[in-house]
């Protein structure tokens, strides 16, 4: 079996990924990326509660209509239960639909001219948010909230390079929606490369930050950036990128 992965010297990309306190309080409603950027989002599943015609069910906050996309299907299930409790008639036809993060962005874009003021929000997996906050506190950041979708990646503190892997016969710089998935990959790497283990650390950034860098598109290294959906939701999309050992 060949070497599973290596740490590439992606210096400029690494420099743009560090989370600093002021970006931790950004809204979970993300800016719409261009069509070239959306290809990075197509394999990320999101869950929404819709009526029997597939139209997303909105909640109203004052004059604002809010459409919510969930990264964790259990949160969508909880929302569906709330709808059934508060509005049994609507609850009878309500159902959970799955789509891609790219399609969710397209929906927001196609409805931007609507008369009603509609906000599209993206709710992260709360367990991943807690993991992100714990990691940042461990690193000395005085974090009290994290209003964004966390992404986890690995970095070599000695070279400042980011972890690169072999994914579907191409080089990829993975950013994980689940920290446990990253931990699993790192455990394999450290077992095979014990001499490198002490300098490899887990870092966290936000989806908003990554999308912003992709929109700017100034660094050629960005072509290797790959978003890895959490392992518990990969069955909802195709193809499901799953890092695996090379043979």
Quick summary:
The protein has helices at 11-15, 35-38, 73-86, 88-93, 101-110, 126-138, 179-192, 207-216, and strands spanning 5-8, 45-50, 59-61, 64-70, 95-100, 117-123, 150-156, 162-167, 170-176, 200-206, 225-228. The protein is an alpha+beta fold and 247 residues long. It has a 4-stranded mixed sheet.
Molecular structure report:
- With 247 residues, the chain is of the alpha+beta class.
- It folds into two domains: 5-28 and 125-236, Trna Endonuclease, Chain: A, domain 1; 45-123, Trna Endonuclease, Chain: A, domain 1, CATH 3.40.1350.100.
- It is built from eight helices and eleven strands.
- The chain has helices at 11-15, 35-38, 73-86, 88-93, 101-110, 126-138, 179-192, 207-216, and strands spanning 5-8, 45-50, 59-61, 64-70, 95-100, 117-123, 150-156, 162-167, 170-176, 200-206, 225-228.
- Strand 3 (59-61) and strand 4 (64-70) form a beta hairpin.
- The longest helix has 14 residues, at 73-86.
- The radius of gyration is 19 Å and the shape is elongated.
């Amino acid at each position: 079996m060949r070497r599973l992965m290596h740490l590439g010297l992606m210096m400029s990309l690494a420099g743009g990924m560090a989370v600093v306190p002021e970006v931790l309080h950004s809204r979970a409603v993300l800016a719409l990326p261009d069509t070239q950027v959306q290809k990075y989002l197509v394999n990320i599943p999101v869950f929404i509660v819709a009526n029997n015609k597939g139209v997303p069910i909105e909640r109203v906050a004052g004059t604002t209509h809010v459409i919510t996309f969930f990264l964790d299907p259990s949160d969508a299930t909880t929302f569906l239960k709330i709808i059934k409790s508060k509005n049994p008639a609507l609850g009878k036809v309500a159902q959970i639909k799955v789509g891609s993060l790219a399609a969710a962005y397209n929906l927001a874009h196609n409805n931007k001219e609507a008369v009603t003021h509609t906000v599209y929000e993206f709710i992260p997996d709360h367990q991943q948010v807690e993991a992100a906050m714990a990691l940042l506190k461990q690193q000395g950041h005085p974090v009290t909230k994290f209003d964004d979708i966390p992404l986890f990646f690995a970095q070599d503190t000695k070279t400042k390079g980011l972890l690169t892997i072999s994914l579907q016969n191409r080089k990829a710089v993975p950013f994980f929606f689940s920290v446990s998935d990253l931990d699993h990959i790192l455990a394999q790497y450290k077992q095979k490369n014990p001499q490198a283990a002490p300098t490899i650390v887990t870092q966290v950034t936000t989806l908003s930050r990554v999308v912003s860098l992709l929109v700017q598109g100034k660094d050629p290294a960005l072509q290797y950036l790959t978003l890895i959906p959490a392992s518990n939701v990969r069955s909802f999309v195709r193809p499901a990128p799953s890092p695996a050992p090379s043979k």
